[in-house]
Amino acid sequence: MITFSDVSLRYDARHTALSNINIHIDKGEFVFVVGASGAGKSTFVKIITHELVPDKGDIIVDGVKINEMKAAKVPYYRRTLGIVFQDFRLLTEKTVFENIAFVLRVTGAKTNAIKEKVNRVLDLVGLRNKAKEFPSKLSGGEQQRVAIARALVNQPILLIADEPTGNLDPSTSEDIMKLFNEINHMGTTIIMVTHNKDLVNSMHKRVVSIEEGHIVGDVKKGEYDLHV
What we know:
The radius of gyration is 18 Å and the shape is globular. Helices cover 32% and strands 25% of the residues. By secondary structure, it is of the alpha/beta class.
């Protein structure tokens, strides 16, 4: 599914973001990426989303060597990814339904298909009854569920979550993680960047630890290394 082969990226002569990264993530895996601020977690994710291109090495995602991808193909590649952010990034002037439908409209999807797909993901996240509400009327947990639905509506090959519980209370965070777990059990590959040790330790998933641009730990059914 995803393979990094000797991947390195330097921001400048003094700062190495990632150094000789080698890792493989299988289709259907749920992987936590953990580490201190500035360790290289965001760089790792931005390389997968093609926001950054490494100085050295190859990255293969779903059979495609994305580091050699032409610029014209990048937008189409990104449509195969679902991305969930800490701050939700919902359009405040659009309803829940419209926020999710917008993703499909930019791809030229037809009205009937849009309605069917949006309702399907709203059912999945348990928010069909909130379809006509605006984000300001929703709780933080509900807004994040909308963001997850939006990320899933194109049936992505990979779901990337960057601190998805960072703005949520512990109880709501636990509910959101249960939703991610359900999504993973349906076959979606998930890569999640997080600082939340308690959630990582409760999930018993693969944990990849990054420190100063190096992978210092990679454990199946692992825990957040408290020293990272």
